[in-house]
């Protein structure tokens, strides 16, 4: 993650990734080392989800994103960031040539 402009300016405001100690910027944790450290795996491995379940899980996380960012504990936000990254990484691995909506393209 890039540094927040506010963080770089020397104020105490920081991005969620900078504020949350559990977030180390590495979206793909090695679950074998996490389990050895006593951490509990949260959620089903995205690779094991059927396509419909993967989409449903991503939809749920995106629907709750703003509320989690604004009101959740640091730990809950860290879990939300981690899970979102895991699910989106799996989605992109399954659909590397995903359909691009021409209406979402910007003129360069």
- What sequence of helices (H) and strands (E) makes up the elements? HHHHHH
Portion in beta strands: under 5%
* Helicity range: 40-55%
Radius of gyration: 16 Å
User: Mean of residue pLDDT?
Assistant: 76
- Counted by DSSP, the helix tally is 6
Structure description:
- By secondary structure, the protein is mostly helical.
- It has a domain of 48 residues.
- 51% of the residues lie in helices and 0% in strands.
- It is built from six helices and no strands.
- Helix 4 packs antiparallel against helix 6.
- The longest helix has 21 residues.
- It starts with a helix and ends in a 14-residue tail after the last helix.
- The N terminus is likely disordered.
Layout of strands and helices, then pairs:
Blueprint: H1 5-8, H2 16-19, H3 31-36, H4 51-63, H5 65-71, H6 74-94
Helix pairs in contact: 4-6
